[in-house]
Amino acid sequence: MHIRIDIATQRLDLFDEDGCCIRRYRVSTALNGAGEQMDSGCTPRGRHRIRACIGRSAAWGTVFRGRRPTGEVWSPAFAEAHPGRDWILSRILWLCGEEPGVNRGGRVDSMRRYIYIHGTGEDQPMGEPRSHGCIRMRNDDIVELFELVSAGTRVEIVE
Question: Under CATH, to which class is 2-158 assigned?
Answer without folding.
Answer: mainly beta
